[in-house]
Amino acid sequence: MMNKRHFIKSLGLGGLAMMGPSLVTKAAALKPAAPAARQHRVWVTPHHEDTASELQQRYAAFREAGIGVVYFEEDSELHFRAAKDAGMEAHRWFWTMNKVDGELLAQHPEWYSENRNGQSCATHPPYVDHYRFLCPNKTEVAAYLRQQAEQVLSKDYVDGIQLDFIRFVDVILPVNLWPKYNIDQSRELPEYDFCYCGHCREKYKAVYGADPLEMPHPDQSPSWRTFRYNSITNMVRIMAEVARQHNKPITAAVFPTPEIAKRIVRQDWVNWPLDAVCPMIYHSFYKESVTWIGDAVAEGVKALHGSCPLYAGLFLPAFKGDMGQLKEGIRLAVENGAAGVSIFGKVTPEVLAVLREMA
Ligand SMILES: [Zn+2]
């Protein structure tokens, strides 16, 4: 499998994280002397060559800076336990609908989603080779993801699960990426519009009496849009059921605002049963300034109506090493109602110093 972090960077679409208020209490209880009142989060890809003593130091510094939860992209008992020993929670960052898995592709190509031209993600992945999204309406897919969540959450060193890629393929990419793919997505193009598999169309038709493929403008059908929002929301509910059975929190990395998330990846995240949400407010992707981080947080917090805390996902490379700008981003996030931030990128001593200072 391609290195995930490299893939995220190459595509420009990362994942962010979040967590629940019960966790904050628990983490604080573990280490009452922690200086920071806020419990930030960070995404980490665990490297297997790291040693226990290195991790002890690194994670102690994270905790000191007010980080309460680490989202680990892969399983690594060493990393998970080191983070927990430092007084943080260790959650699994889980790729949900996008399954870059050669075995699964070979065994079940029929589980993958299809675009409006009838091409499957199994054989015609959009944008990049490692964009392989499953169909959210197939019962076999739901059973498979449930079983995977069960496996992750059964481990005693895993404190929670964070859903990433819990969405459709981007029907519209963030505008910063259009030149990269030499594409003008001023409208929804059929090759990026999913899922038009026979199962999804039948399921929609049974309720609404029409086949989306026979509509002259399926992109303009409100009910077909809602059907797809609900398809992803149902998958979140299934994953949340598993998390609740294990009494562990479930969170999700989502697109930056409720409006953008629905429009470009069919995520209706304000209606998901989560313990916390981490919108990826990656301002550079949308050609926005740091000021927009505050706007995006305000929109999300308002739309959530207090149903769960929001942690603003910040994309460190977008700050280009300017710690003053990073401080401004954190300040705007918190002032507009974020419970904290979730950091994507290399967590340097300078970044940790900013977090400590802002605490
Ligand atoms: Zn489908």
Automatic annotation (TrEMBL):
Gene3D superfamilies: Glycosidases
Name of the molecule in the record: Tat pathway signal protein
Organism: Chitinophaga alhagiae
Alphabetical list of InterPro entries matching this protein: Divisome_Glycosyl_Hydrolase (IPR052177), TAT_signal (IPR006311)
Keyword terms of this UniProt record: Signal
Signal peptide interval: 1-27
